[in-house]
Amino acid sequence: EVHNENGNFRVVVTKELPGERWLDILKQANCRVEVSKHPDTILDNATVKKLIGNKCDGVIGQLTEDWGSELFECLKSAGGRAYSNYAVGYNNVKVEEATKRGIPVGNTPGVLTETTAELAAALTLAAARRVPEADVFMRAGHYKGWLPTLFVGQLLQNKTVGIIGAGRIGFAYARMMVEGHKMNLVYYDPYPNKKLEEYIKQYGELLRHNGEPPVFCKRVETMEEVLKEADVVSLHCNLDKTTHHLMNKERLNMMKPTAVLVNAARGPVIDEAALVQHLNANPEFRVGLDVFEDEPAMKPGLAQCPNAVIVPHIASASMWTRSGMATLAAANVAAVLQGYAVWPKPDN
Ligand code: DGY
């Protein structure tokens, strides 16, 4: 679909985006906007290259595309000057390949924070309280009446939630679990989160004033301490070389056999084959997964694990967030094309 046919700059958008603001921004920036006609398919490089064609000033691309030397070379040859990922994560982008060619890369931080943390919280509750298992049971007509032992799960209150990677999303999730569920907090991040540290102090005090038992909140020096101590562990780190298979067999075994593990970050942070083995060996261990190692595929056996709650990478899927992401991605591209974003950055 083509919008603003006579616009000066040709901008390719590789998937239809939600909301309307993003299109207005690009139109106002004098862009002719071409939206790909492949709504449901994941685009391979050949298809993206066809979309870029001979002249293309900027692209809004998806986390499912492989933005490396091949696509950036194609964009550069077409006169491209701007790329934005429609995502906060950019493990699908080789930023150095873009930088080499003078193409700045944008992402969409901020607007996903609360939405993603909410989904991580939803997965935590769903896994701890076995909601999807119970839902399947009901639909199958198995419910014959209340029983003391039916779908007994884990209470979160006064237990300990562990965060691996305490950036914006990790902090928002921690806040939900500490305030909403009165959980203790233990977090690991190589870099302390100042805001979280301040929050921890204040919130701990607040609880004491209310006469409730104090929550303990602390940062620890190793992720192993989190794994051993926490009843719930939620992953909120980036995917890079240092975090690939961060949760391997050995580390899974350090967790409590009744723990809940949540991943709304990136699939390859967990060794998924090892996780399937762990789930089978520990029926009371539960996992909530939004992302998968070989997305969209799952490792054999995962779909058959009743102790796994699995959803298709929907952590940022609220209307407000998805249109906010579109607005930011459009603003990223428009700013460069209109000359507001100076690149490479001047030295002073
Ligand atoms: C992201 O933005 O990185 C999410 O995975 C999708 O919104």
Automatic annotation (TrEMBL):
Q: Which GO terms describe its molecular function?
A: glyoxylate reductase (NADPH) activity; hydroxypyruvate reductase (NADH) activity; NAD binding
Q: Any one cellular component term from GO for this entry?
A: cytosol
Q: What protein family does this chain belong to? A: Belongs to the D-isomer specific 2-hydroxyacid dehydrogenase family.
Q: What is this protein called?
A: Glycerate dehydrogenase
Which organism is this entry from?
Answer: Chlamydomonas eustigma
Q: Which domain of life is it from?
A: Eukaryota
What are the residue boundaries of the D-isomer specific 2-hydroxyacid dehydrogenase NAD-binding domain, all occurrences included?
122-315
Parent sequence residues shown = 42 to 389 of 422
Keyword ATP-binding recorded: no
Which residue numbers delimit the D-isomer specific 2-hydroxyacid dehydrogenase catalytic domain? 11-340
Keywords annotated in UniProt: Oxidoreductase
